[in-house]
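#help-structures
NK: newbie question, is this the right format to request a structure? protein is histidine kinase
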Amino acid sequence: MQKDKGTTKQKPKYKPPLKNSDSTLILGFFSLCLWLFILTRSRPFFAVYRLMNLASDTGDGGYLFAAAGLLVLFNTLRAVFLYLGWFFVGDGLAELTKKKSLATIVPTVAIPLSYQILALLEAYAKPHFGVPAIMGVLTVILVRFLTKDVPGRLNSALAISIMLFSFQWLDIVPALTEYGFGWGEISMAVKELAVLMDRKNLLDLLGIIAFLTVLSSGLITSELLVLSTLQIKSMQKIREQERHLAHLREEHLRTRSSREIQNLVHDLKRPLTTIVGLLDVLGSSPNFPQNHKKHLDVAKDAALGMNQMISEILSSSSRRITTIEEIISYVMAQVSPLDFHKHVKVILGENCREKRVEMNVVRFSRALVNLLDNASRAAKSIERKPQILLEARCDKVSVTFIIKDNGPGFDQVITPDSGSTWNSTGLGLAFTKEVVLEHGGNISMTNAPTGGGIVTIHLPLKKEESH
């Protein structure tokens, strides 16, 4: 089906996520807008006045206390959005400018300034910047200090809100009026009514008890937030230490196992040396039947080959000259007992058959077997029948080994420097990378466009071969 030439498919525009500082500033300005909106609402004050009228008409102190409580609640609501608004704005500016001091300076300066600006306006029920407001500013500083290690601003906001609620109760305590508490119009009206109704002492007691109760809960909340954060950090540290100890135990076991294998292999050289020596003695004996000489030579070559393998196992620097074809054959001989060997397809470039390299055949073949095993397990991890390709390509100066699979790709399975997964053969990709670097080569890992992973190893050919 042909596409309409007149239409082009437009790619959706990329919208970068908001930075943390941007979202904090938005939250701060939104809180300030809510504060300004609440300032224009007069209905809650009408409710306070209605309760005061009922208290005056009936002489019932319950209406008076209800009016005082409603006033405290409404004043707290206004104060919370103002304080939290500048609290968030300060945090956002501190993150944006990388100046931590702004997180404290902004609310300390902006909150009193907001009260002074409102004092110049003829707003209904203007908030009074009295002692509780000053205590609120100090609370912002205190809570910021106490909860500096507490993640999440909402936790700090909760502590600030509770503390502000406690301070607002001091505004309705008649005994504290002369000290700068509760000079707002409605607060003064409530306290004057309490004096007229002879409920001054009860209102003092109610305000102080409410203040102490809410303040205690605020301090406890702040302490719990700090303790919970410290506990979480402690648990994270313990888990990190446990992971580190597990890694050390694994490394210790691996090192001990490797050392035991090295000792065992080293012990094999002694009887092998004896075998080679006896074969030499038998071959040089005039009484040895000549028709068995070829069998003796085969046995001697096998013993010498095994001795070379042991040397390569014991020393990574042990090398011998071999052909690419011999390496592939050696790898497939090791793969043949494994269940995935029938899924491995080998492609040997025509110009590779006689190319020679100098390498530690045992270690390098083990690295290739490890990659083939990982490729098989990658395919099985997504319940696919493994399709594995082992290919060798040669040019004038280098040989390239390519291992390709039909698994999910490296991003979902393994990373270049990780240990082997699924208990695979060898010591993982870190081992493979180490072996490749020992031979002066390089290794790369990519995902195929059609799916699956591709591992590419480049090695230099023997110098005579590259000319």
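mod (FA): yep, format's fine, and the tokens are attached above. The beta strands are 320-323, 344-348, 356-359, 388-394, 398-404, 442-447, 453-460.
NK: thank you!
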